Amino acid sequence: MYWTYSGTIEKSRRKRYTIQTPSFEGGTWATDQLSQVYERIEDFFLAQQRRARQSVMSRSRVDTGIMRSNVESLLSTSRDELVLEFGWWYGQPLWAIFQEFGTRTGIRPMHAVQQTFHEVILELRRVL
Fold first, then answer.
1. What pLDDT is attached to residue 2?
2. Is 29 among the domain residues?
3. Is residue 83 part of a domain?
4. What number of other Cβ atoms are within 10 A of residue 121's Cβ?
C-alpha cells in the first residue's frame, strides 16, 4: 500500500518539532501537527504572562507607581518545558514582600501574586 500526503502543511510559525521527510509525507504532517499543538500551548502561556502581570499590578494596593512598575513576568521556553514566573523580582521594591504576605501587626496580606497564581492554574485546567 502506498500513501501520499498531498495537502499543505498548515501555517506553523515556530515549527519546533516539524521534521521534513520527503520520502514519508505522513511523518512531516504528524510532526507539524505536534508543533502546532505545542504552539497553541505556548500562545496560551504568552497570553497568561501578560494577564498575570496586569493582574498583580492591579491588585497592588500601594499607589506610588514604584510597586506597580516593578511587577515583572517572564516566560522561559525550551523544547520540553514552559516556565512562567511573575511577581516582584529580588525584593524590589523592599516593601512589596510586606504587602504581599503582611506583618504581625499593621499590614494585612494582599496575596496579589498568590491569587493570580491560582487564577492561572484554574484557567490552564479549564483550557486543557
1. 41
2. yes
3. yes
4. 11
pTM for the structure as a whole: 0.70
Could you tell me which of 49, 42, 67 has the C-alpha nearest to residue 116?
49
CA atoms of 85 and 37, how far apart (whole Å): 22
pLDDT at residue 16 in the model: 63
The answer as to whether 97 is a domain residue is yes
Q: Total domain count for the chain?
A: 1
- DSSP conformational letter for 12: -
State the pLDDT at residue 118.
Answer: 94
Strands (DSSP E) contained in the chain are: 71-77, 82-88
* Half-sphere exposure (Cβ direction) of 41: Cα atoms closer than 13 Å: 18
Q: Is residue 120 part of a domain?
A: yes
Report residues of the chain scoring pLDDT below 50.
Answer: 1-7, 9, 12
The domain in which residue 84 lies consists of: 25-127
